[in-house]
Amino acid sequence: MKTDFEIQQDVMAELLWEPALDGTQIGVAVNQGVVMLSGVVDTYYKKVVAEKATKKLSGVKAVAEEIKVVVPGSKTRSDVDIAKAVLNALKWNSTVDESKIKVQVENAEVTLEGEAEWNFQKSSAQKAVENLESVSRITNNIRVTNKVIAEDVKHKIASAFQRHASLDANKITVEVLGDKVILTGTVRSYAEKRDAELTVWSSPGVMSIENRLELSSEIPVY
Question: What's the pTM?
Fold first, then answer.
């Protein structure tokens, strides 16, 4: 098991390695495997990249992210301009039906509402907005409305786990309750826990996931 100091060093090195980031702008503290990120960046995208880069590292149990987005005054857009940029980004995203999404911008904070048939469309809408200039925060309230849950959805998810190189399917239990999926069992890292959840989101009709997966105390063997 890695010590908090070792995890901290790994996170700091990973943030410095990320080409989109200036790792010196982000503070890293670790307490019992929980990583706390702080500091200031100039785009929401960098905030997201820092969090994702941290979550994928071994030994990380959870991430508490308190990074603030502060846009230089010369680059600040009005809420109206940000809203226009968001709508344009959604329009040019081929996976998103922009006619079903409503956009609200207040104090540079973007809220997305509306409907999508698949969760990847919901995620794609957010990704289209993340790198826009002057956006300080994104709240994604888009609802997944595909109600069709195949009778064999549990089998499909289990099969997907078997195909996924990073997941030990034998240690993950899948329970389907209507349009909700519950995951229990153990994984070797926080990154695997996230991978399992992303795999489930790829199944049609899944509207919510309760991820109860716990980190195993066993030392991974590669």
Answer: 0.62
